[in-house]
Amino acid sequence: MTTEHTRLVAALRELRARAGLSLAALAERTPYSKSSWERYLNGKSLPPRQAVRELCRLANEPDGRLLVLWEIAESHWSGRAVAPASASSTDESPQPHPEEPPPPDGTRRRRLGRSRLLVVLAAAYTVIVGGVAALLFLLLPDSEARETESLPASVPFSFAPLCQGAACEGQDPMRLICGVGPDTLASYRTVTGAHVELRHSEKCGASWARTWATEIGDRVDVTAGGPTHDVHIRNEEETATFVYTEMTEVHHGSTVRACFRPASADGERECFEARVGEATTTAGPSSPR
User: Fold this and answer.
1) Alpha-carbon gap, residue 38 to 244, rounded angstroms
2) How far, in Å, CA of 68 to CA of 66, rounded?
3) Which one has a higher pLDDT value, 136 or 247?
4) Over the chain, what is the mean pLDDT?
5) d(CA 60, CA 58)
6) What's the rounded Cα separation, in Å, for the pair 120 and 113?
7) Nearest CA to 40 among 18, 73, 62, 80?
8) Separation between Cα atoms, residue 3 and residue 90, nearest integer Å
């Protein structure tokens, strides 16, 4: 899975956990089966755009940010993310070496004929292989399908965190799978309308901040008494999705502090904090600290 696909999967899992929906519930309330949702939520296949919208609807989550994540993941999944470079290279047709005369027309026609034949053979091969694969799928025993159907409502996610404690310091929570099913220590809404949350993963022993509804130039930093890690909103794409700071190591009882710095020159810093292990707190705009 690409990093972009991992981010999308983590966000979808988080929505599903927040909504408390089992695979059976998702199948009942959407056009997609339990086995399809199992593949989407475990990163085995990229979900359709409509599936992302359906999950957002069930979780009462605006779909804008998740659809941006989907667009990015889909562009890498389909290869569109590298299409411009490929297109530019194909535009430059090879030229004969100056010292070599161009091939005679007969040779050129023979080469073109061979190329067309290879294309036809490749297409036929694809059709044959695809047909055999589809036939095998229909003829295989349904043990695998039964195994998927028998999954409990709380299906354990297949991705385990890739760091713990000090090893997570300064690392990306999404890339290292700490951002799957984390706790929210505190939520804060800034004067400018941006949202900032302090997040915590007990399995990783680390916390970080995530923000959304931001503006280009906004900054968010987080610390738990050690190194400070920050993130800078750089473009329109990042203003329309979740953006995360790097992680900082924490323990039970640690105080985690996040600060928001608006892009505007006259804006003041706004900070809030929470303790690991205490109840979630929510706050609106307040006087800067």
Assistant:
1) 26
2) 5
3) 247
4) 76
5) 6
6) 11
7) 73
8) 27
